[in-house]
Design brief:
This protein has a 7-stranded antiparallel sheet with strand order 7-3-9-1-16-15-17, with helices on one face. It has a 7-stranded mixed sheet with strand order 10-11-13-14-18-19-12, covered by helices on one side. The longest helix is centred in the C-terminal third of the chain and has 27 residues, at about 530-555. The chain is an alpha+beta fold and about 650 residues long.
Length: about 650
């Protein structure tokens, strides 16, 4: 996959020594981008002019004065270490890094009316028409932007969050439902001066943005927005307001001189600029101007199921809501009776056609997620020994037996905290037993308390959080991927998404238990609150899990793919009534049943769910380390580490 960074300078600060533009240091940004996309890194700077003409690999500015020589040529430059660019009001900077598995296509992709950059992997597209999925996706976004340009100003229902009610547009947008893959993409029309930012239904690859009267910034990671704005202000000796109040990081010695003013009133910008010498930032030996923890609250996520349109002429953001999943499609006529059986291997009343269809769609999803890769590309599986990762591993094993994949190219990766002070990790037994039973290669990183304590600052910095739950989950992910990186793995498969579509969380069971038993058979199918909660979980998956996992995986230059989030599989499973997935005793009934039908041993498909942080012992380890360092809770300990990190 890739990394994206976009920067638009909207304001001229009119500082005396900046007539020739403002310095923008690219190095902090591209230190991150290089990890996300080691194959190539490129940037393109556009100035604020009216018309462009494409010529080979260059953009040519035509001033329309009849003088053929009066043209400015802008080349897409390869990034250099410690490179800097000069920006003026209205300038736009596109930045992209590439992790390539198929045809090597550098970005931005430029044609006669648009510029396209993207972080994507599309599994099915017209190979006869397009030589690469990038060109396929570019054309689809161009059509979508053209559609919005004709219609989105005609939509009058706009709420306080600038979200447009698009009920009348959804029929036009249904074409995206059949797109198989993941994407976080941007296309800019430099004639209409509008840009469309579009993400896949679940935002598998995230994008964040920051917008105020001075800057419009979009990035794959919040850290890059922070670095960009921090360094721009610092390097150019600028003091401005950042929307509301921004806390200065007082933990960093000599971070800002005592005279610096951060103006909370937007209207006071001119005053601060005119008095820039008096209120200037002393940049000598200073590393940080803004506190990351405070500033990140100003950064907004482009949410799942939404598009973003930015109009550069009017400097306005519009959020377009989509509808990828419709609960009204649920067909209750498929089932003759509601199951209430405790032992999943004794379930007889599930229509066998549904089981067969579920298995078929899962196998198709699994094949698609490993389709776009080089012939000798290795495949890793993030393996906890739970039912989700076991199904993925067993599905690949089936492909190995059919000689569709080379066994030598597949390996299971897991990690646990193993220490004499703690009990044996529960995951470890199931990881070893599965690999042994099905003759698959496995590498389990066994970490001790000292190693974990040493690595915690790096993990916190990578995932941009000191939340104990996020960190305890990220730890297992971190060590598994670190090992995979040593083995030169670039693609890993994850079981994330299974809990959402098959109703596998305790919250699903809690909701079910709140429904009166007398109403369960009559009222429940009509008001499928479990499926509604499953959809809410899917829409929240990016914020809760996918962004964290993306930050860790991209830190090692590894792309993680998610078979359970393939659109065909999700649409089908979500079209089934949820009493097929959960009852008062068992969660993920359908998943366990089709695992049984596939031939997976009962000890794996019938295993009780244990969250990754518990089965690996990382949660216990954090609690112990916190106590040994004199803290009452994990949160206090992790916040103490976070406060010492210099972002």
């Amino acid at each position: 996959m890739c990394g994206i960074f976009f920067f638009n300078l909207k304001k001229d600060f009119k500082i005396k020594d900046k007539e020739n533009g403002f310095n923008f240091n690219l190095n902090p940004i591209f230190n991150i981008l290089k990890k996300r996309g080691p194959n190539s890194q490129n940037f393109l700077k556009l100035s604020s002019f009216d018309e462009y003409v494409l010529s080979n690999n260059f953009l040519i500015l035509d001033n329309n004065d009849g003088n053929k020589n009066n043209k400015e040529i802008i080349k897409i430059n390869k990034i250099k270490k410690n490179s800097k660019v000069s920006l003026n009001k209205g300038d736009i900077l596109f930045s992209h890094s590439l992790l390539s598995f198929d045809n090597f296509i550098k970005m931005p992709i430029i044609d006669r009316d648009s510029i396209f950059i993207s972080n994507h992997e599309i599994y099915d597209y017209d190979n006869n028409k397009y030589k690469n999925d990038s060109f396929f996706l570019k054309d689809k976004l161009k059509d979508e932007l053209n559609f919005y340009e004709k219609s989105y100003y005609d939509v009058n229902e706009i709420n306080n969050d600038n979200e447009i009610n698009t009920n009348k547009l959804n029929n036009e947008k249904i074409k995206w439902n059949d797109l198989k893959g993941m994407y976080a993409s941007m296309i800019y029309n430099y004639k209409s001066k509008k840009m469309l930012v579009k993400l896949d239904p679940y935002s598998i690859k995230s994008l964040y943005y920051y917008n105020d009267e001075n800057f419009f910034i979009i990035s794959s990671e919040k850290k890059m927005i922070y670095f960009a704005l921090n360094d721009f202000l610092l390097n150019n000796n600028i003091s401005i307001s950042i929307n509301d109040d921004i806390n200065i990081n007082n933990n960093i010695n000599n971070n800002i001189n005592n005279n610096i003013n951060i103006n909370n009133n937007k209207n006071s910008n001119n005053n601060s600029n005119n008095n820039s010498n008096k209120n200037s930032i002393n940049t000598k030996n200073k590393k940080r101007f803004l506190d990351f923890v405070s500033f990140e609250n100003k950064i907004k996520k482009i949410n799942s199921n939404t598009d973003l349109i930015y109009d550069f002429k009017n400097e306005e953001v519009r959020i377009i809501k989509n509808e990828f999943i419709n609960l009204n499609k649920i067909d209750y006529s498929l089932f003759n009776e509601i199951m209430d059986i405790k032992e999943v291997d004794k379930i007889k009343n599930i229509d066998e056609k549904i089981i067969v269809k579920s298995i078929e769609l899962f196998k198709e999803s699994l094949k698609r997620t490993i389709k776009n890769r080089k012939k000798n590309e290795k495949i890793g599986i993030l393996f906890s020994g739970g039912i989700d990762s076991a199904i993925i591993a067993y599905g690949l094993r089936d492909m190995i037996l059919k000689e569709e994949i080379d066994l030598k190219k597949v390996k299971l990766y897991g990690s646990v905290l193993k220490d004499n002070l703690l009990s044996e990790p529960k995951d470890l037994f199931f990881q070893r037993e599965f690999a042994k039973k099905y003759n698959m290669k496995i590498k389990i990183e066994e970490i001790d308390l000292k190693q974990l304590e040493k690595d915690l600052p790096e993990i916190i910095k990578i995932i941009e959080s000191n939340d104990p739950i996020k960190i305890s989950i990220a730890i297992a992910f971190y060590y598994s991927l670190k090992r995979a990186k040593k083995d030169k793995i670039r693609i890993c498969l994850s079981g994330l998404g299974s809990e959402e579509i098959f109703a596998g969380y305790n919250r699903h069971l809690e909701i079910l238990n709140e429904i009166p038993l007398t109403n369960f058979f009559n009222k429940y199918p009509k008001e499928d609150v479990i499926n509604k909660e499953c959809i809410n979980g899917l829409m929240d998956l990016s914020t809760r899990d996918l962004y964290r996992d993306d930050l860790v995986s991209m830190n090692f230059g590894i792309e993680v793919r998610f078979p359970f989030l393939e659109q065909d599989l999700v649409n089908y499973i979500m079209s089934l009534p949820s009493y097929y997935k959960i009852n008062k005793e068992i969660k993920k009934i359908l998943l366990r049943k089709f695992s049984c039908s596939m031939g997976i041993d009962k000890m794996f498909y019938d295993r009780k769910k244990i969250a990754a942080q518990y089965g690996s012992n990382y949660d216990k380890a954090l609690r112990r380390i916190a106590r040994e360092n004199g803290f009452h809770t994990r949160r206090e300990y992790l916040e103490n580490i976070s406060n010492k990190i210099n972002y």
